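Today's session is about reading a structure prediction critically. Students often jump straight to the picture, but the first step is always the sequence itself: look for stretches that repeat, for charged clusters, for runs of hydrophobic residues. Only then move on to the predicted structure, which in these notes is written as discrete structure tokens rather than atom positions. Here is the chain we will use throughout the hour.
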Amino acid sequence: MDDATRIELEAAAFRRLRDHLRARTDVQNIDLMNLAGFCRNCLSRWYQEAAAERGLEMSKDEGREIVYGMPYDEWRARHQTEAAPDQQAAFEKNRPDH
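Below is the predicted structure for this chain, in token form.
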């Protein structure tokens, strides 16, 4: 497989993951962190870091809007729920270092 095709496939897989996470608003970030060690915020930060590596300026809010499909504060108001004590405890126990 040539590099251009690989990059196209990787980009398509990213877009599908992004769109899936946008559609699954029932899945909270703390659930993603506890189960997979990353969440929408991590994904948006990785996107922002990739832009910076290529000399492109991107704010935290711009990166989040790409992943969330709307401003982060709007997403939180619409979809985020309070984390349960057991979710918070699991997060503190397994907090990723990234």
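Discussion point for the tutorial: The helical segments are 3-23, 29-36, 40-53, 60-68, 72-79, 85-94.
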